[in-house]
Each structure stands twice: as structure tokens, then as C-alpha cells.
Amino acid sequence: MGCFHSKKNKVPPGYEDPSILASETTFSVSEVEALYELFKKISSSVVNDGLIHKEEFQLALFKNRKRENLFADRVFDLFDLKQNGVIDFSEFVRSLSVFHPNAPLEDKIVFAFRLYDLRQTGYIEREEVKQMVVALLSESDMKLSDEVIESILDKTFVEADTKHDGRIDLDEWKSLVLRHPSLMKNMTLPYLKDITTTFPSFIFHSELDDGSA
Amino acid sequence: SKPVTMNAFELISLSSGLNLSSLFET
């Protein structure tokens, strides 16, 4: 069965004790164990090596492993904390923790800023925003002329770039987000609140271990 | 055509690549 040679639990690379992960994230131990069920599903969808490869991430997001998407790439890169091209379980839990409804808003704001700072310069530049708008348009049915895109950028920067240097720094980003809370909508996943009921199989295992069934 | 009243980030946030809830619909 599978690739395990013995009945002893062989842990994949990057697996960390759920109690440690729980102590360092927004999740409880049960929630971390439930996330492991989800992680196993995603990380075995293409290559069964206990790690999430970009193809597997795309497959889980879009149900299509070949779909290129600038934003999915950025999310993958940010989840890949060790920057080694794959997401291990501890990276998965630590990164998803930011998306928990109880995670601090500050963490969500910083994560979104890093996501949109495509070139990682510490600023969201106008050119980056344009690149992202064009990428969004190309994945949707919306068609906007270059003139309209430029006017959207003008309007956005008049509002966001309060220091008038043509780019948005973290402080400016925070003020913009506080004025437009809807920009943080993607940064909270209500699913994470009831993850133990979505992926309950670990509870079943725990009950068996307790001998209480 | 109607004027677009969204700011750039509101538009960007519509991307399916940013909708991680689909990770849970496996």
C-alpha cells in the first residue's frame, strides 16, 4: 500500500509536529491534523512525494494543472517559504494560517502587499499594477482599452500614492485597504473555521486510538 | 460603454488565482 515500507508512520519532508504548528499559528492541534488530510490529498495528486508541486497547486485551484495564472504563481511563491520550488506541510500550515478568520488583519495586509509587490522591491509600482490588471483581464471576459486601463491606474494612484512618488509603500497600502476593506476579502477563508468538519477523517482515527468507539 | 468605477486592486482581486477557497473543494 502506498510507498510506506512499514506500518510505522513515515513522515514526509517538512512534516512538523501538529502541536508545534498549532502553537505557532492560528490553528488548534485538531485543525492542523485536519489540514494534513487536505495536504495529503493535494500533495499526492500528481507526484506522491508528500510535497505540493506547482502543478498540484494549480490542479487544486483550477482543477486544471496546465493553467497558467500570475496570481496563483505569486501565491505559490509566497507559500514556498524556503524558496525551494515546493510547498511542504509546515509551509502549507504556516501560510494558510494568515487566511484564518481569526488571523490578525495586519498579517493579511502585509501578505497581500507582498503578493502584489511582484518584483519584491518593497513597493507596489504602477507598472506592476498594470501587469496585474492586464493578467486579470486576460483570464476574464472583460475587455478594456489601454486608455481605460490607464485611467483606472491614474485614479488608483491618485487615491493610494499619497506621497506622490509613483509607487505604493506598505503604509500607503494599509491606508488604502482600511478605506476599501473589500480588498482583503480574498485574505480570509471561512473554510478554515470549520476545517475539522470538512476533513473529519482524523477524528475517526483518534476515536479508534482511544478505543472509545 | 459604462465607465469602470472599480479601482485597480478591486479588479485584480477578482482573479480566480486569488480565490484560495477552491483549494478546499477537492
Question: Most extensive chain contact?
Answer: A-B, 45 and 21 residues
CATH superfamily of the largest domain in chain A: EF-hand
Main structural class of chain A: mainly alpha
CATH architecture of the largest domain in chain A: Orthogonal Bundle
Measured by DSSP, the beta-strand proportion of chain A falls in: under 5%
Determine the strand fraction of chain B and express it as a percent band. under 5%
**Contiguous runs where pLDDT drops below 50 for at least 5 residues of chain B:** none
State the distance separating the first and last CA atoms of chain B: 39 Å
Q: SSE order of chain B, as H and E?
A: H
Uncertain segments of chain A: 1-7, 206-213
Question: Which structural class is indicated by helix and strand composition of chain B?
Answer: mainly alpha
Oligomer: heterodimer
Helical content band of chain B: 10-25%
Number of strands of chain B: 0
Family (chain A): Belongs to the calcineurin regulatory subunit family.
Keywords (chain A): Repeat
Domain EF-hand (chain A): 67-102, 104-139, 148-183
GO biological process, one term (chain A): calcium-mediated signaling
Structure characteristics:
heterodimer, A: 213 residues, mainly alpha, Recoverin, domain 1, 2 domains, two-stranded antiparallel ribbon, 11 helices, 2 strands, 54% helix, disordered N terminus, disordered C terminus, B: 26 residues, 1 helix, Calcineurin B-like protein 01 (chain A), repeat (chain A), EF-hand-dom_pair (chain A)
